[in-house]
């Protein structure tokens, strides 16, 4: 069996209409993933709905409603591979009300491209997305200055936008010297896959070349073992088989493990008997591995989705309350103390109550701008104190970031997202 190529989750972000979807569509087409015939069909359809020129965007925007509005609504995932990596491309919406989908995307992304139109430069959402990317742990971010054809491939225009974006990313905590800024025209195809003849002044990589310059994300094998349970099966002849994905650390056969909160919130312990991945027995599982496993001494009633497994000498943290940094994405009115929506943390879904709104932050810089506000609303970033209605496993962003992020949902929509920065351990 050939060794699988390393896998990278890529996210494309940026202000609405700056050309994210067109960039990804062009990459797919020039990269040979989408054929001429498909593109021709999409082109005809684009003309039909009065969106001539949107055919590349249609490659990603498969939802009918999106095509008619010419806007990306949901996250779409597409597979793409080069000699070096296997990629999943996440095309994230730029529209304000779609930022919620962008967050579910960014929290899984290893690397990202911020698309900025040469015609507009840095816009409100460019700032917001840059800050969200850093908040949600997108370590490697590069920039695509798109629509260079619309500014006659002018190097001075490119330089101006480049300087502005790098200054912005510096305030968001990125190091400008490790960021690649590529001038492109997604519409015409300059510097996406093919080197542009219109910009002889640019000596750097194309978007396609930059993809293979992304550093392979390090697997967090040095962190403590954390494996959130997705499902628990009872399999004849084997017994109880929990299924889940290793987030951090390493699990080996023979390990003594504990599931928490589990039954009554006290946790249950056992010993790992077998581990299976893709229907093959394996000796150990690493971060990113989706596995089924069997633990001696565990009954079907003992554990459930949302429990987290760790080693007995480093038990996952069960909290009675926690402090978080959140961004309110889409709330119909205002959030005040007492509000108790459902938090989606790893595989757990637990209602948590807002017990204190400590401070409001400036979304472009992350600095505090108001202490103890009475309420927060859509667009606000804040530090809040929360109390889960039942035992919950969550970790600090600084210690185990993979287990710190969450989304807050209410009545079927994502109202906010955030990360845990501190907690009070459950006694």
Q: Average the pLDDT over all residues and give the rounded result.
A: 82
Strand content: 25-35%
The stretches of 5 or more residues where confidence is low (pLDDT under 50) are: 59-77, 93-107
Approximate helicity band: 10-25%
> Judging from the principal axes of the Cα atoms, what is the shape?
globular
Largest sheet: 6 strands, mixed
User: Numbering strands along the chain, what is their spatial order in the largest sheet?
Assistant: 2-3-1-4-5-6
Please give the count of helices: 8
Content-based structural category: alpha+beta
Task: Please identify which CATH superfamily of the largest domain we are dealing with.
Answer: P-loop containing nucleotide triphosphate hydrolases
**What is the alpha-carbon Rg in Å?**
23 Å
Short description:
By secondary structure, this protein is of the alpha+beta class. It contains 8 helices and 23 strands. It folds into 3 domains: 205 residues, 3-Layer(aba) Sandwich (Rossmann fold), CATH 3.40.50.300; 85 residues, Translation factors (Elongation Factor Tu (Ef-tu), domain 3, Beta Barrel); 108 residues, Elongation Factor Tu (Ef-tu), domain 3 (Beta Barrel), CATH 2.40.30.
What do you see in this structure?
- The protein is α+β, with helices and mostly antiparallel strands and 427 residues long.
- It has 3 domains: 7-211, Rossmann fold; 227-311, Translation factors (Elongation Factor Tu (Ef-tu), domain 3); 318-425, Elongation Factor Tu (Ef-tu), domain 3.
- It has 8 helices and 23 strands.
- The chain has a 6-stranded mixed sheet, sandwiched between helices. The chain has a 6-stranded antiparallel β-barrel with strand order 7-8-14-11-10-15.
- Strand 11 and strand 12 form a beta hairpin.
- The longest helix has 17 residues, at 155-171.
- It is globular and about 70 Å long.
- Mean pLDDT is 82; it is low at 59-77 and 93-107.
């Amino acid at each position: 069996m050939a060794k699988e190529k390393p896998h990278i989750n890529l996210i494309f972000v940026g202000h609405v209409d700056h050309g994210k979807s067109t960039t990804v569509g062009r990459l797919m087409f020039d990269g040979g993933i989408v054929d001429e015939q498909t593109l021709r069909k999409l082109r005809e359809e684009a003309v039909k709905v009065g969106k001539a020129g949107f055919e590349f965007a249609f490659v990603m925007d498969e939802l009918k409603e999106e095509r008619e509005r010419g806007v990306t609504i949901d996250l779409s995932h597409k597979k793409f591979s080069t000699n070096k990596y296997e990629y999943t491309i996440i095309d994230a919406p730029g529209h304000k009300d779609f930022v919620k989908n962008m967050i579910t995307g960014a929290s899984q992304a290893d690397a990202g491209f911020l698309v900025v139109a040469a015609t507009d430069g840095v816009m409100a959402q460019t700032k917001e997305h840059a800050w969200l990317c850093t908040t949600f742990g997108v370590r490697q971010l590069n920039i695509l200055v798109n629509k260079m054809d619309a500014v006659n491939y002018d190097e001075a225009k490119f330089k101006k936008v480049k300087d502005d974006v790098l200054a912005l990313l510096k305030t968001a905590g990125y190091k400008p010297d490790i960021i690649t800024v590529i001038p492109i025209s997604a519409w015409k195809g300059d510097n996406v896959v093919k080197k542009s003849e219109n910009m002889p002044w640019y000596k750097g990589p194309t978007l396609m070349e930059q993809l293979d310059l992304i550093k392979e994300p390090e697997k967090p094998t040095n962190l403590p073992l954390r494996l959130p349970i997705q499902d628990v099966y009872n399999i004849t002849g084997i017994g109880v088989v929990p299924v889940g994905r290793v987030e951090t650390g390493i699990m080996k056969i023979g390990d003594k493990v504990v599931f928490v909160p589990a039954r009554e919130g006290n946790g249950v312990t056992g010993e790992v008997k077998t581990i299976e991945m893709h229907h093959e027995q394996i000796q150990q599982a690493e971060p990113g591995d989706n596995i089924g496993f069997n633990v001696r001494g565990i009954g079907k009633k003992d554990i459930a989705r949302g429990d987290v497994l760790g080693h007995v000498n480093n038990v996952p943290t069960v909290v009675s309350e926690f402090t978080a940094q959140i961004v309110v994405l889409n709330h119909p009115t205002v959030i005040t103390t007492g509000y108790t929506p459902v938090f989606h943390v790893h595989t757990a879904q637990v209602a948590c109550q807002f017990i204190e709104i400590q401070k409001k932050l400036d979304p472009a810089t992350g600095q505090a701008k108001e202490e103890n506000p009475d309420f927060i609303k859509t667009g606000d970033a804040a530090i809040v104190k929360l109390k889960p209605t039942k035992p919950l496993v969550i970790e600090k962003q600084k210690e185990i970031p993979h287990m710190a992020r969450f989304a807050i949902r209410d009545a079927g929509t994502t109202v906010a997202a955030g990360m845990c920065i501190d907690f009070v351990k459950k006694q």
